[in-house]
Amino acid sequence: MTAKIIDGKKIAKIIREEIKQQVSDLFQKTGAKPGLAVVLVGERKDSQVYVREKKKQTVALGMNSFDAILPDTISEEDLMAYVQKYNSNPNIDGILVQLPLPKHINEQRVLDGISETKDVDGFSPLAIGKLAMKGREAMFSACTPLGCIELLDRSGVSIEGKHAVVLGRSNIVGLPVSMLLLHRNATVTIAHSRTKNIGDVVSQADIVIAAIGKANFVQGEWLKKGATVLDVGINAVNDKTKKKGYRLVGDVDFESAKKALGPNGLITPVPGGLGPMTIAMLMKNTLTSFQRKMG
Ligand code: GUN
Question: Is the ipTM above a cut-off of 0.85?
Answer without folding.
Answer: yes
